[in-house]
Specification:
The complex is a heterodimer of chains A (287) and B (135). With 287 residues, chain A is α+β, with helices and mostly antiparallel strands. By secondary structure, chain B is of the alpha/beta class. The chains are: A alpha+beta (287), B alpha/beta (135). The interface between A and B is medium-sized, with 28 and 24 residues.
Chain lengths: 287, 135
């Protein structure tokens, strides 16, 4: 049995106990990194509140336009109660309208990056590739048509070198949020995943359900998590609608998987030395 | 509050027939097929990347009672094992559903359609994919 499968090296859950090479990381970055390896995620305040407000305001305006609402009123109330204005049958059309609209904004991706720039640099690096489209999830109460079965992004073609920056546009808790399987149980289940070969993702969820952690997070915070850990969502049993966005970041020159440069990722912080290197040609003509 | 009916897409995150196809393109092919065929498309399930793993296909099979059918990006995403494929066919037809393969533009709507599917899959297993060198 491959008991190392799915492990984000080094052994995540032992990060508190095993002395990892610190290199020249700052004390602040070391603490953040240890928490990330131990728990599989960190929650931090959004670093740029103007960017956060701009993103949410744009989402609200686009949703209101799609629904023909002139004055959406309080943004948080509008988003939380959107299920009173849209049916499940019409939900995906609204989601696509907002998703396409907000992604058409030339400022969106940089604003999104600015929400967690410092933390992304601490966890991933300072020369980065970013997903080209920022995803949008809307989960109405009791709607089972928009569920994401248990998965890791790596199982769906992403590189284990990526992290996800997950942004709640409303307060999210319990089933209104997403769940994540912590690194320890994730390693255990990954090692015996083949035992689920003839079963479904639903069976897999039931096996991990006692160990999953529901992410409680408020609007104004960002979640950075290891997408190589099992995660997903369930039917939202809370009274309000969940709105969240997510986007992947990776070190520019770390390995890519099925989600490749250009079609899925784009460089965002290419440094001068890299530009010099990519342009360099060794003098030739000696042969 | 489940939205009943429709055709669930099924895409790969590992090579199909040894070739990699971006998921975005797989979904475009499926959406185009669905539109041309008048089928109501439902967002695709993405099979896990591990070779030989069909957990997401199993998940889609469990969903058949709420679907009209499944649209594979390619028929070559089906299990290589003959018995496992027939289990899929039986489940599809047992739920009075349809199985479509968008890239190959073929479908299974009744038991007699299975032979056509299988002929293509079996011949592909044995047919050479490279021409002999010229003598």
């Amino acid at each position: 049995m491959n008991d190392q499968a799915g492990v984000t090296a080094p052994r995540n859950q032992d990060a508190d106990n095993v002395e990892l090479p610190r290199g020249f990381l700052t004390a602040e970055d070391t603490v953040l990194g240890q928490g990330f390896l131990r728990d599989g995620y960190v929650i931090q305040p959004a670093a740029d509140t103007d960017a956060l407000q701009k993103i949410r305001a744009s989402v609200v305006i686009l949703a209101a336009e799609h629904l023909g609402i002139a004055d959406p009123g309080d943004e948080g109330v509008f988003l939380n109660a959107i299920h009173e204005r849209v049916t499940i049958a019409d939900l995906n059309a609204m989601r696509l309208a907002v998703y396409n609209g907000v992604n058409a904004e030339p400022w969106l991706r940089e604003a999104y990056f600015d929400l967690a720039r410092r933390n992304i640099e601490a966890l991933v690096g300072n020369e980065l590739a970013m997903q080209r489209r920022v995803n949008l999830s809307i989960q109405l109460p009791n709607d089972d048509s928009s569920l994401l079965p248990v998965h890791t992004d790596v199982w769906s073609g992403d590189s284990p070198f990526e992290i996800v920056v997950w942004l709640p546009l409303v307060d999210c808790n319990r089933t209104k949020s997403m769940y994540l399987l912590p690194p320890g149980p994730n390693r255990t289940v990954s090692g015996r995943l083949h035992e689920f070969a003839s079963q479904s993702a639903e069976d897999l969820f039931h096996a991990i359900e006692p160990d999953v952690e529901w992410i409680d997070i408020r609007y104004g915070e960002v979640l950075l998590f290891a997408q190589s850990l099992m995660h997903g969502n369930r039917v939202n049993l809370e009274p309000d609608t969940r709105w969240s966005m997510n986007c992947r970041f990776k070190s520019l020159f770390s390995p890519y998987a099925d989600k490749r440069m250009g079609e899925f990722f784009e460089p965002i912080t290419v440094r001068p030395a890299t530009r010099l290197g990519m342009d360099y040609k060794l003098p030739g003509g000696f042969e | 509050m489940l939205l009943a009916g429709g055709f669930r897409g099924y895409i790969a995150s590992r090579p199909v027939r040894g070739e990699r196809m971006p998921q975005q393109i797989q979904n475009l092919v499926i959406r185009d097929y669905a539109a041309r065929s008048g089928l109501a498309f439902k967002l695709s399930a993405t099979e896990y990347a591990m070779p030989g793993c069909f957990i997401m296909l199993n998940t889609v099979m469990e969903e058949l009672s709420t679907l009209d059918g499944v649209i594979l990006f390619s028929m070559f995403m089906l299990p290589g094992d003959h018995a496992a494929r027939y289990t899929v066919y039986d489940q599809i037809l047992g739920h009075v559903c349809e199985l479509h393969a968008a890239h190959e533009n073929v479908s299974i709507r009744s038991p007699k359609d299975i032979a056509r599917f299988e002929d293509i899959l079996l011949v592909d297993q044995f047919a050479a994919t490279e021409l002999p060198e010229a003598v």
